[in-house]
Structure formats: structure tokens, C-alpha cells
């Protein structure tokens, strides 16, 4: 019983009823325009004095409403009303003006349906409550029985006044049921007539995927750049602190390396954040490449006391820009991983080779503990694997050698592959 009452008189049913009444109110100007055609066509001077002529005026006004629905703001306004009054989710509705022929046709169909059904429910809402009130009061008010007020002759029977309140209440319940049913019908059809097409949904999904790809790309850039800088600065500062009194020259070199590292990282951070603020297209923030800054990367790493041996084959300066940029980040992250897990003073061997249409990157270092990503969201080796996979390459990492004391990272990137 409570469920039925909620369906007929609950908040959602009442809001949908309001939506239908608004449709009836919007229909009134079109009914008046229809009267201007029906009156001369039938020779009637009082169209609203005849119920059939009223229906004819109503029917004549709906095609006019369909034409005026081509106004650009019709679909956004109707979609907003459906969202707030009919309880339809916003992602199932198109809030932009109709542009294609199909969208305009569906908007016209919806506007006509809204005004047509709303006009009927609004007319019933105006007529039935006074009629039901008279029937409910009929047994208790003798004057109503005497004046009749145009009531049906069946009420002249002696049993009729006793049943009149039942009929009155039933009329109100029937009105609520019609309004709830009509509101549910419009809510059901709204996404089909006012919602985005499958092509629109596909385009929106592609746009979201492209935006997510850009953001993931920027997140990797931030992680690799800032993460490496923090690891290097921490190592350099620690090494400088240990020899502060005994080796001032090394301290000066470490401080200079810290200054250079932080300056470069702040510049990269500003560039990435600028892309995020501006929401620029599918591009990404400028990043260093092997050709431009590999020697600087190795020098900054060595300045912290890390012993780095690098073997770089000829031809790396002619790498495609995308491969060179990603390779730089992979080498940078490989060095950061060695700094985090091997510690200062441990020898790191870096080899970069070009053969058989591929760029091979190998980073090896001794390990003193388990190799894993940092807790709390660090990407580390997973980020390297993501970069390699996006270029159509491969990445493998693990321990080898006697008792598994050597950690080896090996990445292969095709020089011509998916961007």
C-alpha cells in the first residue's frame, strides 16, 4: 500500500507531474494559434465553447510546436527540465543544441510529445479536482443536490449520493495514476529523444580516453623527473654531509650538482603543470632526450658519489625524437632505481646500443635488498614497462648472477613503431 502511494504521490511523481503541467502551459500559445485556424475553417465564433473544437485546436497547434522546436535552445532547456523534474541522469541527456537532421527530428518529436501529453494531463488536472470535490461533498450539502451544477442525471437516484464520494476519490486516484504513468512514459523516452546518439557516446568516450592518456603521460613525466631529482639530491646531500669537513671540493661539486638538478626539475615541473592548466591537446610537456642531455644526466648522478660506467654506441644522436625522449626517461628511471635500492658508492653499468632496428638499454647494479616499487603509488619499474609497451618495445627486470646479487634492467625499443 505504501509502495503504491509512493508511486502515485511520492516526490518523484509530484515533480514529474509538475513537468507535465509545464508542458500543458507551453502548449497554450499553440492551442490559441490552432484556434485561429479552426475557427474560420468551421465557421465557429466560440471555439472554446465546444469540446470537439478545443481538441481540434489542440491537435492543430502541435505541428506548429514541432516546427518551433527547431530553435537551438529547445533541446538544452528541455534536457535540463527532464534532468531536474523527471529524475533522468545528466549523462543520458544531450545538453548541447541539436545540430544534425536526426537530432532536430528527435527534439521535435520530444517537444511535441511533452506538450501533447502535458496538455492532456494539465486539462485533466484542471477539470477533475473540482468535479471530484463536488462529488465528495454531495451527500453532505443539500444545495448541491438541488442545483445539480450540471451533474449527470444518474445522481437523481436515491443511492447515487452515497456512492458519489467513492467516485470522487476514485477520480482523484485515477488522475494521479494517469499523471504518474505519463511522467514515467516521458522519463523513459527522454534519453532516446533527448540523449546523445551512439556516435556521440563513442566520440565522448574517445575524448575521455585521449584526455586520460594525456594525464597519464604527464603523470609519468612528473614521476620520472621529480622522482629522479629527489633521489639524486638526497644522495648528493648525504654524500656532501659525510665529507663536509674532509673534502670541501667534493662538497662544492655536490652543492653545484644539487643546484643544477633542482633548477632543471623546476623547469620541467613548470612545463608539465602548464600543460595541465591549459589543457592543451594530445601533446606533452617538453622533455630532455638522449642526444641533448645524456651526458648531463650521468654527470649529475656521478656528482652524488654514484659510480656510473656508461657505454653509448654511435648513432644515438640520430634517434627519432620520441624514442630518444622515452629512452632518456628510461635511463633516468633506471638510475633512480639503482640509487634507491643499491645506495651510494655502488657501481652502476649503463649500456645503450643500436642494432637490428632497435635501441637496447641495459642498466646493471649490485643489490643489497629486494627490488620493488615504493609503497604509496611509486611507478618505478612499472613506469618503464609502460613506456616501452607504448612504443611497441619490451622491458625485463630482475636479479641474476651469483645468489641473485646483480639487478639487471633490459629494455628494447623499436626505432619505428607505434607512437
UniProtKB/TrEMBL annotation:
InterPro entries: HATPase_C_sf, Sensor_HK_TwoCompSys, Sig_transdc_His_kin_sub3_dim/P. It comes from the Bacteria. The keyword Phosphoprotein applies. GO terms for molecular function: kinase activity. It is an enzyme of class 2 (transferase). Keywords: ATP-binding, Kinase, Membrane, Nucleotide-binding, Phosphoprotein, Transferase, Transmembrane, Transmembrane helix, Two-component regulatory system. Signal peptide: none annotated. Residues 215-279 form the Signal transduction histidine kinase subgroup 3 dimerisation and phosphoacceptor domain. The chain crosses the membrane at residues 20-39, 51-73, 109-142, 162-187. Its EC number is 2.7.13.3. It catalyses: ATP + protein L-histidine = ADP + protein N-phospho-L-histidine. This is histidine kinase. It comes from Streptomyces levis.
